[in-house]
Description:
Layout: E1 4-7, H1 8-13, H2 15-23, E2 28-32, E3 35-40, H3 43-66, H4 72-95
Parallel strand pairs: 1-2
Antiparallel strand pairs: 2-3
Amino acid sequence: MTVDHIPLEKLRRSLGQVAQDVERGGSVVVERRGEEAFALVPMRLYRLLEEERRSVIEATRRARESFSDLSEKEIESLVSEEMAAVKEEGSSSKAGS
Length: 97
């Protein structure tokens, strides 16, 4: 899926057409002074992203509660172990490809 980029000035002139394109499932990145400023996305994608964001926030909250009794060193050790396991998993999956 490609994402169109459009300058803000052009969006102002063609908002109706851009809105129709987005309603049909397209996405548009709006640029201001050559920099990406914001995106217009279909509501179903927005809702999906919001649901994912809420899930991440809730998982983070639960993780903080679960590990609140651990010391900083214990947390760092657990994180290091997990990162090593993920790297190992990535290496073994690449070797099997």
